Amino acid sequence: MSAQSIGETEDTGVVPDAPLLEVDDLYVEFRTRDGVAKVLNGVSYHVDAGETLAVLGESGSGKSVTAQAVMGILDEPPAAVTGGEIRYHGEDLLKVSAQRRSDVRAEGIAMIFQDALSALNPVYTVGFQIEEQLRVRLGMSRQEARKRAIALLDLVRIPNAARRVRQYPHEFSGGMRQRAMIAMSLALDPEVLIADEPTTALDVTVQAQIMDLLKEIQTERRMGLILITHDLGVVAEVADRIAVMYAGRIVEYADAVSLYRRPGHPYTAALMESLPRLDLKGHELKTIKGLPPSLLAIPPGCPFHPRCAMAQDRCRTEVPAEYRLGLGRTSRCHFAEEMVGGV
Amino acid sequence: MGRYVLRRLLQLIPVFVGTTFLIYVMVWAVPGDPFAGMCGERPCNPAFVAMMTDKYNMDETVFVQYFLYLGNLLQGDFGETFSGLAVGDLIALRYPVSIQLAVIAVAIEAVIGIAAGILTGLRGRGFVDNLVLVSTLFLISIPTFVTGFLLQIVFGLELGWFPATVSSEATWGELIMPGFVLGSLSMAYVSRLTRTSIAENRRADFMRTALAKGQPKRRIVGVHLLRNSAIPVLTFLGTDLGNLMGGAIVTEGIFGIPGIGGLIYDSILNKEGVTVTGVVVLLVIVFLLVNLIIDLLYAVLDPRIRYD
Ligand SMILES: Nc1ncnc2c1ncn2[C@@H]1O[C@H](COP(=O)(O)OP(=O)(O)OP(=O)(O)O)[C@@H](O)[C@H]1O
Ligand code: SF4
Ligand SMILES: [Mg+2]
């Protein structure tokens, strides 16, 4: 069963021909003892079937929070969505019933996490955790679900799936665990897969295998893939479009080719010099000077100005608008056009 | 697992020998005439002393005495009291009610403690949470004999809801209040342990995964949260059952329960060495076995624990 069939059986707000998943001007804050942290400040991105969107940005820029908001798994409280829409087939998920939200979560949008060991329940077998979805959501019998779980483990190329299905997460290696996690996320045939740093916790060689697997599965099933990552090398290979986040905003949004050829935002440029790249192993990395801003008190003007080498006076007072750089490419820098067009 | 059980059982042997020997020595090798005061004001007559000395192998070294005793014990013979009663019979007469009391106590602390823990762990801060915190603090800080006398007076004598003392039949109904008193301290710990365990696991990554999988709330709590949170709680309850099976001298005393705690107490007062040794040896065995069972239970609950 896919989300489309949910659309047929229930009265939903699904709009035909709408993009698969759109995040539109999303605001999220965390209300903590220290004050209100404005974690997302108008995030927008979208992904269509068969497309890969990479989300880049320093730690704390809000990549995971955006993903959690899309899944509807934020810790509320302390988190609160204070504005914006999350549209799945045109239907705003922030307005639907809890039941509908849960259905979409199960069958429309799936997510895999960075640390598969802690993301899997240690006291149940890997098989149980895959089968539980099939049994609860599709009403499969134990035997049917077991068969399907083995097939899924096979699909993600876990050797000896029939035996592995009965093992516990701690009996798997890191790479195998992430494969099992992927198998689990595919159980109900989702249309969108959000992968939050799926390879960060793994060895370099395993990282490449997992990325290949994800890419292959995505192409086969024409899934929309949102890939949150730190690895520019990976991004270059797999992403159709890239969203660069800074202090809870997308500061640059571009197709991978043009972004690599010429970044449209000083922060992107700095990231490209500082993030580890598979193809430049051994080179000394430049780090971006300074720290990301406190989300309790985001600087006025351009939030990046205290760290920006190009900052001018107007950057300190005037929030940069979203400049269009043609063909769906945008940048939130006053000097975006100079960056792309200038020498 | 089978091999682990075997190894654990084999490990019981030296522990068993060591503890029983220590107990034996402490009871029998105390300086002084073991029969002093047994014959009223006068010293015992020599024939009696000779008979007793022979009966308990008192002229042998303590090692020989111990091994003779151990030999009998392994054949199920706990020896006789000075007055000629079989210690085995005494134990058979008085242990069941203590076990019954321990089971009631653990059942009460499990039901009430876990319920309070789940309620507060799931709800988070609030009125119920504070209520439970304060009342557990209350229970923890009051000694058992105070709780015991208080409940006895209020519910037994004043309100008459429960019998104030336990008759010689010691029915389950009569044992509820004593069981509550005996379990009250651990009940407070169980509720706090459950609360902490649930509050901790509630934020675990696997809970978020279960949510992301679109599992219904009830199932996320019932299947994913409770199973993980149960591990430390069940372990504690098992250990506590082991402790309480050792008899409850104070609680048995307050409610006049003819249990094993009272037996130990009386036999120490009367210098009944054979009885003391027999009972304590039995309790050591029970304790060791209960602990073994808990360790095995632990492995069943938490598959990450593997014993080979
Ligand atoms: N439960 C929470 N309570 C308070 N603040 C939170 C919570 N979760 C996230 N935040 C805040 O939200 C901000 C964004 O966090 P997020 O996890 O989205 O970052 P990220 O971009 O995914 O970083 P990383 O690369 O480290 O994963 C951080 O500043 C963090 O402090
Ligand atoms: S707006 Fe100014 S401070 Fe901000 S990125 Fe552009 S140049 Fe730097
Ligand atoms: Mg993150």
Q: Do you know the CATH topology of the largest domain in chain A?
A: Rossmann fold
Parts with pLDDT < 50 across at least 5 consecutive residues of chain A = 1-9
Identify the CATH class of the largest domain in chain A: Alpha Beta
Indicate the mean pLDDT of chain B.
Answer: 81
CATH architecture group name of the largest domain in chain B? Orthogonal Bundle
Q: What percentage of residues of chain B falls in helices of 4 or more residues?
A: over 70%
Residue fraction in strands of chain B: under 5%
Number of helical stretches of at least 4 residues of chain A: 14
Fold and architecture overview:
The complex is a heterodimer of chains A (343) and B (308). Residues 1-9 of chain A have low confidence and may be disordered. The longest helix of chain A is centred in the middle third of the chain and has 18 residues, at 204-221. In chain A, a hairpin with a 2-residue loop joins strand 9 and strand 10 (249-255). In chain A, the strands form 2 sheets. An 8-stranded mixed beta sheet of chain A has the order 6-7-8-3-9-10-12-11, with helices on both faces. Chain A folds into 2 domains: 19-108 and 190-339, Rossmann fold; 110-188, no CATH class. Chain A is of the alpha/beta class and 343 residues long. Helix content of chain A is 36%, strand content 21%. With 308 residues, chain B is an all-alpha fold. Chain B folds into 2 domains: 2-87, no CATH class; 92-301, MetI-like fold. In chain B, 75% of the residues lie in helices and 0% in strands. Chain B has 12 helices and no strands. In chain B, helix 8 (205-212) packs antiparallel against helix 9 (217-244) and helix 9 packs antiparallel against helix 12. The radius of gyration of chain B is 24 Å and the shape is flat. The mean pLDDT of chain B is 81. Bound molecules: adenosine-5'-triphosphate, iron/sulfur cluster and magnesium ion (MG). Chain B: Belongs to the binding-protein-dependent transport system permease family. Chain B: The chain crosses the membrane at residues 12-30, 99-119, 131-155, 175-193, 244-265, 277-301. Chain B: Keywords: Cell membrane, Membrane, Transmembrane, Transmembrane helix, Transport.
